[in-house]
Amino acid sequence: MELLRRHYAEGKYQGSGKGLMIGVALLLLALGGALVWGAWKLGSILYQLLQQAF
């Protein structure tokens, strides 16, 4: 914490990092969407295979 306080007091603080947080949130949202899509696609394939088996 002391290092952060000195960094801020010396004027080296350059922003809040909101852009980085938004970027990370968008990346996680895209990754979550890809996982849901992949699970849906895998489930669809498995369902079709089970229908053909019986």
Please specify the SSE layout and strand pairing:
Blueprint: H1 2-9, H2 18-53
Descriptive report:
- This protein is mostly helical and 54 residues long.
- The protein contains 2 helices and no strands.
- The longest helix has 36 residues, at 18-53.
- The protein is rod-shaped, with a radius of gyration of 23 Å.
Entry summary:
With 54 residues, this protein is mainly alpha-helical.
Hey, roughly how much beta strand do the residues contain? under 5%
Gross geometry = rod-shaped
Q: What is the SS-derived class? A: mainly alpha
- What is the element string, with H for helices and E for strands? HH
Compute the separation of the termini in Å.
64 Å
User: What is the count of β-strands?
Assistant: 0
Taking pLDDT < 50 over at least 5 consecutive residues as the criterion, the unreliable ranges are: none
Number of helices: 2
Q: What is the CA-atom radius of gyration, in angstroms?
A: 23 Å
**Biggest β-sheet: count, sense, barrel?**
none
Helical amount: over 70%
Mean residue pLDDT:
90
Key words describing this protein structure:
54 residues; mainly alpha; 81% helix
